Structures
1.
Amino acid sequence: LPRTIKSVLEDQSSSDAQVFVNGWIRSVRSQKQVSFANVNDGSNLKGIQAILTTEQAKALTTGASVQLKGKLVASPGQEQQRELQVEHVQVLGECDSTYPLQKKRHTLEFLREIGHLRSRGNTGSAVLRLRNAAVLGFQKFFEQAECFNVHTPIITSHDCEGGGEVFKVLPASDYETQKAAPTAMASSEFFKKPVYLTVSGQLHAEILATSLSRVYTLGPVFRAEESQTSRHLAEFWMMEAELAFINDLNQLLDFTEDCIVSTTKYVLDNAREELEFFNRWTDKTLLERLEKTVNKPFIRMTYTEAIEVLQGAQQSGKIKFEFPVTWGSSLQSEHERYLATTHFQHPVFVTNYPSGLKPFYMRVDETSESSKSTVGCFDLLIPSIGELIGGSMREERYDVLREKMIESKMDLDEYKWYLDLRRYGTVPHGGFGLGLERYMLWITGLESVRDVVPMPRYVGSCRY
Ligand code: 4AD
Ligand code: MG
């Protein structure tokens, strides 16, 4: 394969040797005799500076794709150590002046309008290199923790979270039937029952954890979220882990914290250039914040304690919440923000929420009184963003789970396989799901999930 600009620049033996460089022109600056072009192929932040004659540079326009032949020489400038003394220019694809990514700072809103080109710019490409580094960091963590990477299905007959935010899947031919007889929409002719795009791979990951012991999966999940917020997408990527034979919630919290700390360390060590870019342009506290994330233990508190903190803040007049803070009501994003962003300014695990607020599969706490029944679960809240991870111990006791499923009016036949996992050699187990785009907000300082996924899908929008 032809070499990337990154590898050409890093290879110390390439000085004075003839090299080829492929990429897109970011900018051209011409003086009388000599011209400078910045060429970038996406492999690093700064690309390479090319020195050519002004005659050669005439053929170059911003956005054009080129192959340059030349020698790497030491650069007299401060910006880079080495630059390309060009001998030969070949334009692969011309680009005219309507190219929207001219050299200047564009707003994130403008870049969203040109989503098919934004990854050719600094912000768009740095996000994707960081995203790649984050995924590698997660994979390295899971590998050393002896978790197997597994693949859970996208089409499923279950609504794991019970939130009713599922997209139904139908073959196109069923839509034709629907036109003739609208009631035929109830189920898919193809699968002979209603099926959906998955909202979480958890239940399937439980099948695999109760056979391989420790698994993780990273895949797209889909939610028909009506909320038009900077934290919600209709299609997003979830990193899910499921672990059998863990003793209790504390062990799960330790594992989850290790996972975030280890991945963030990996990103700090392996994507420094990108983090420095975001620290300069997006969030001047980014590096400091990430260093603190890896060096200071996360806060841990129960839901009940969190309610006390929130009530205390409200009573002392520190803050006025829009939604009431009472035991039993869910934490709204204003509450989550107060805890992580204002009060602790650090990631916070909030644990043991009331059962009534959480899905059927979470393990009921034995110690909780029946009037204030809680489950062995947690949300990890992070400053500015709110919930990054949701996880729990899973109800492994057959009878307790069956009771809960009946209470939740679930179809026991449909979930027989899930109960079977408890019927045949049940084990204590638990896991979590992390929204990859929200983690990306944390490590870029960007504010909208629409800017950290290449082609965002959200209510009202599915371009490309
Ligand atoms: O808290 P959630 O709904 O948890 C589950 O789905 C569990 N079954 C996961 C598990 O235990 N295996 O979702 C997990 C995370 C959230 O904490 C949040 O970061 C992210 O997924 N998330 C979203 N991210 C972007 N857009 C949305 N619409 C999201 N909904 C949840
Ligand atoms: Mg959640």
Note: The mean pLDDT is 94.
2.
Amino acid sequence: VGVIHISEEARDDVAQKLRIGIYFAAWWALNVVFNIYNKKVLNAFPFPWLTSTLSLAAGSLMMLVSWGSRVADPPKTDLDFWKALAPVAVAHTIGHVAATVSMSKVAVSFTHIIKSGEPAFAVLVSRLFLGETFPLPVYLSLMPIIGGCALAALTELNFNMAGFMGAMISNLAFVFRNIFSKKGMNGKSVSGMNYYACLSMMSLLILTPFAVAVEGPQVWAAGWQKAISQIGPNFVWWVMAQSVFYHLYNQVSYMSLDEISPLTFSIGNTMKRISVIISSIIIFRTPVQPINGLGAAIAVLGTFLYSQAKQ
Ligand code: 3PG
């Protein structure tokens, strides 16, 4: 019986590793596709507030249809759940729109190099707002992260302040989002997939009035006509692809968060950025100077050192 028991455990372990491996591979692949279509859309139609809103709208619609048709079970939520979700949704909305504004101003690779500095923000926020302290190696690992990001920013050929600040604001907002959502998901009453669905819906409600105020239907209509006349009817597919893939990669990442520690999650997220940085440089033929690439490599290496130090 003992032998059967052990082999069953081993089988469960292999099955879980395989499942997490599939989640990670899907998360990175979906994210690369999102980033490419998002940038293609922003190049032709530079309205990041609208594209951010459409991403949330597509996800909300897909999940409402899934719940209505019972493809997915709707979550059982109460007022307390939505109250706890509110700060997560505010942070998610700010982080999402700030990253998209950044990508509308600079190369996708640059936004993600700055976003690879997120662990430095996590440590600073935990230290300053939550009073958490960390062992010395964690603080030391921030030096290559901050230094690498700074070097990459200083040597970026197409540096733009709004693009840089957007990525920085996104880092800060996502650190708060992760802190709040870890608290909210701890009860485990709602699965990762449904948690992210509710998050999208609430963020959509928050973002829509701001998107209308900042950009607005008139500029959207004029921009849309121009984009269609330049790109042709395919442009509609690009917009749909960026919206649907945005939801899918986030959904998969929240599904994997159900099964892994936040630390494993952040390592996965950094590896995701490497694939986005490399693929977007190739696809958009982004000019990169060696010193600029060195800065990016140091920043990413720093994130790995950080994850080791935290372990
Ligand atoms: C967004 O638009 O929300 C950002 O591209 C998300 O960035 P991240 O999920 O890679 O942190």
Note: The pocket of 3-phosphoglyceric acid is lined by residues 96, 99-100, 115, 174 (CB under 6 Å).
3.
Amino acid sequence: MKIACIGAGYVGGPTMAMVALKCPEIEVVVVDINEERIKAWNSEKLPIYEPGLFEVVKECRGRNLFFSTDTKKHVGEADIVFVSVNTPTKTHGIGAGRAADLTYWEGAARLIASVSTSSKIVVEKSTVPVKTAEAIGKVLKRNCQDPNVNFEILSNPEFLAEGTAMEDLKHPDRVLIGGADTESGQKAIRTLAEVYAHWIPRERILTANLWSAELAKLTANAFLAQRISSVNAISALCEATGADVSQVAHAIGTDSRIGPKFLNASVGFGGSCFQKDILNLCYVCESVGLKEVADYWLQVVSMNDYQKQRFVERVIGAMFNTVSGKKIAVYGFAFKKDTGDTRETPAIDVCKGLIRDGAKCCIFDPEVKAEQIFRDLSAPKFEWDRPNYSRSQSHMLENVQVQSDPIAAADGAHAICVLTEWDEFKHYDYAALYEKMVKPAFIFDGRNILDHAKLREIGFIVYALGKPLDPFLVKGY
Ligand code: UDX
Ligand code: UDX
């Protein structure tokens, strides 16, 4: 058997590496239009950082795992084709700001059709709106010259989280495969299930109809994001009333019906999926006339935007209502720890908000490169999900500096804003940093990871999200 995957990104790369590792008799080829990316996959420095990924790639590469730009050849030869290309939010036209742009998906489908001389299973891996499979099916059917070639479309959404992708792939809570209710659809489901059954217990391989599988992915992300927006809403109330959001979260999380995960209040959720999937879900709801349902879910995104804005206002308010000309150190730019990924990171909106008020942001992140930060802070919304984005121009910005050293970033600064929960931030010598900063020196902990009592002892004015306010802040606000 041969498997091809179109799209060597955060989803396609790790997923195919795991398939190759667990199924040594299957040839797995990951293809991409981006030559640089493929070159990197074939080198010692992979294009994405994911713990445990390099070891797996090293073991399989050249054995049964290959990375190539020769899309036609490998897709043509494959029995199963996974598609994991970008599905950006539309920026203009009907559904702008909500609907998914399926240009790249449609392009992939046309390509598959044009090179196919044998029947294939086409697997949706990218997140797509509900009923995409139907549209893709039509494109495939009408564009293939050979009448004997049959395409079966499956939806097999990915639930891996970045930073733990390899663990999630090795021991997933479940694998979901959706297919048509026809005999050939069910056969295709069984074929793909066989692949996963190499390492995943059968009872964890769930099957569903196509639309259910597509919708399950959007719903899973909407539910996860909703928990964060819910706890973030409560964090604002905590600050206003003197409750502590960590105590509230802990208390509710011990209820087994609620559970303890995904209840950390934060400066906002980021990442390539949550916002995009919710917007997608809303668009689908609106298109079938369910405005109330769309409005309900849209609130999850609005609350996330509110939380980022609230954080910015808190910083500016605390610093005597002006940050103009003040240096502010920003610790963390990635959307979460242990990744260099900045897609939809809350740091973008927070930095932009501070810069708009005249602050000079000095950003430090252990993984994210300076050019990426400049690109993100100057690019239009949703631009990051275009295939050429990482190769696009990166412009220096007047009020932004990127430092590779956290001490230099805080030197002469009025405040430190912690925007990513990197572990190393917990262990810095804050007493030494305090000495280098302008007084009063502020710390705004947007992730609640620091030892606030200790920081106050040193002399910092501390804002900890969702916690009783520092008396200095109450007065100043
Ligand atoms: C991707 C999509 O971006 C996301 O919308 C979806 O939900 C899951 O799949 P990810 O793997 O994280 O997620 O994206 P990315 O790292 O951007 O990888 C997509 C890859 O597809 C890129 O390397 C891009 O060059 C490639 N691509 C895109 C093609 O090979 N052909 C195309 O026509 C378009
Ligand atoms: C998410 C889903 O978890 C995954 O199943 C799906 O396939 C893709 O989208 P990912 O984006 O990698 O994965 O990150 P995740 O760990 O879910 O975190 C998303 C965002 O929420 C991050 O910005 C994170 O910092 C934030 N978050 C998470 C919180 O603010 N509080 C929490 O309690 C948990």
Note: The domain at 2-200 is CATH 3.40.50.720 (Rossmann fold).
